Amino acid sequence: MSGDALERDLLDREPDDRIRVLDPDGTVVAPELEPALEAETLRSMYRDMRFSRRFDERMISLQRQGRLGTYSSLAGQEGSQIGATYALADDDMLSFQYREHGALVARDLPWEYLLYWMGHEDGNAALAEIDVFPLNISIAAHLPHIVGWSWAAKLNGDERVGVAHFGDGSTSEGDFHEALNFAGVFDTPTVFFCNNNQWAISVPRERQTASATIAQKATAYGFAGVQVDGMDPLATYVVTKAAREKALESGDERRRPTLIEAVQYRYGAHTTADDPDVYRDESEVEEWREKDPIDRFEAYLRDAGVLDDDRIEAIESEIEETLATLVDRAEDVAGDPGEMFEYTYAEPTPRLEAQREYLADLRDRHGDDALLEDE
After folding, report:
1. Whole-angstrom Cα distance, residue 293 to residue 26?
2. Rounded Cα distance, 168 and 146, in Å
3. For the chain, which terminal residue's Cβ has fewer other Cβ atoms within 10 angstroms, N or C?
4. Residue 50 in contact with residue 32, Cβ under 8 Å?
5. Closest by alpha carbon to 90, among 120, 43, 130?
6. Which of 86, 83, 61 is closest to 73 using CA atoms?
7. What pLDDT is recorded for position 4?
């Protein structure tokens, strides 16, 4: 099948025709969709998926020790984040919510990113160096921004695509509908990647929308919507690649945007401030763990002769060394309470200046140790 024909086959399906390349046991079930990736690329994808899982575990441990702020876990979603990002060009613009750390790992995660979770805004600013918009906490608020960026890229004639990651809960927000409507009308080169992990904090998927799928919502805005197995990194790779190629097409035959619904599961809590045992059964979690993206991909790579025990051991050692270096470097940065006033407004207001001076006076008179004492 030619590239154009394959792209159409992927993106012209019914929204509930879920695309999968690998079964949960790693068996190829759609050989016509299996991407022709080099062995080194496949190993790199596997490494980044394992790194993302280990990064997640380490960040949660640091949070429990009081060395990190509230953190949102990605475990279970490595297949969608790594697969999708590998399908992009290095200078395509990424915009994410707050759980897609794996997308940053696939772009050589800057050490400064850890600073954000430690309370330093510099960690957000560093993402610009890898063509990623700052982390977004407000649900779906980043979607209109990526559409605006995409529209500018189109007007400038740039061969670049804007890609937005968000959760299923975002589809209930007005910003989601406004962004998709604008993208359809102005035919922007935008890929909307919905990480449908079944839960928006404690609200299950069936209470988010009465639509049979999230992918079908794209029909209302005049462009393609497709559903993919989000725990299959090869499936998310080929679908995102097809969506990117369509986004760069010129002409009126098909709209450039695509809505991808990646069906997957969030193993852990919504954040480290959440207790998922209150609203879901552990049996449900274990059922989804049988579809684990890392185990699935590893089985596929072992069968293809791309991975073996020695290579996996080397990857694990490298991951531990890299993580240790990242954490040490981030924890070497001393916080300055005065920085809280730096990022509120472009120009500080008189009230903000007064607050800055008041804090400085308190620190001078009492010292930081006294101000940090518990009463």
Report:
1. 9
2. 17
3. C
4. no
5. 130
6. 61
7. 67
HSE-up (13 A, CA, CB side) for residue 132: 28
Q: Please state the separation of Cα 170 from the chain's center in Å.
A: 13
Q: Give the distance, in angstroms, between the CA of residue 370 and the centroid of all CA atoms in the same chain.
A: 40
Which residue from 252, 233, 226 is spatially nearest to 294, judged by alpha carbons?
233
Please give the Cα distance from 147 to 153 (Å, whole number): 10
Nearest partner of 186 among 270, 259, 256, judged by Cα: 256
DSSP notation for 11-38: HSS-TTS-B-SB-TTS-BS-GGG-----
Task: State both tokens at 269.
Answer: 């809590």
Residue in 44, 35, 142 with CA at minimum distance from that of residue 93? 142
Which residue, chain included where needed, has tokens 């968000």?
166
Q: Tens of pLDDT along 136-159?
A: 889 999 999 999 999 999 999 999
Q: How far apart, in whole angstroms, are the C-alpha atoms of residue 169 and residue 209?
A: 9
CA distance 44 to 315: 9
Catalytic residues: 266, 270, 279
Assess contact for 163 and 191: CB atoms under 8 A: yes
- Find out whether 221 and 180 touch, Cβ atoms under 8 Å: yes
User: What is the tens place of the pLDDT at every residue in 309-354?
Assistant: 999 999 999 999 999 999 999 999 988 888 888 878 889 999 999 9
CA 161 from centre of chain: 16
- Name 224's Cβ contacts closer than 8 Å, sequence gap at least 6: 11, 12, 218, 243, 246, 254, 255, 257, 258, 259
Report which residue type is found at 356. Answer: R
SS3 248: coil
CA nearest 59: which of 46, 50, 68, 48?
Answer: 68
What is the rounded CA–CA span in Å between residue 292 and residue 352? 49
- The letter for the amino acid at 65 is Q
Q: Do residues 288 and 265 lie in contact, with contact meaning Cβ atoms separated by under 8 Å?
A: yes
**Residue 67: pLDDT above 90?**
yes
Q: Find all residues with CB under 8 Å of 293, minimum gap 6, and list them.
A: 49, 76, 77, 78, 79, 80, 230, 231, 232, 233, 264
CA 11 to chain centre: 21
The residue with tokens 């995409």 is 150
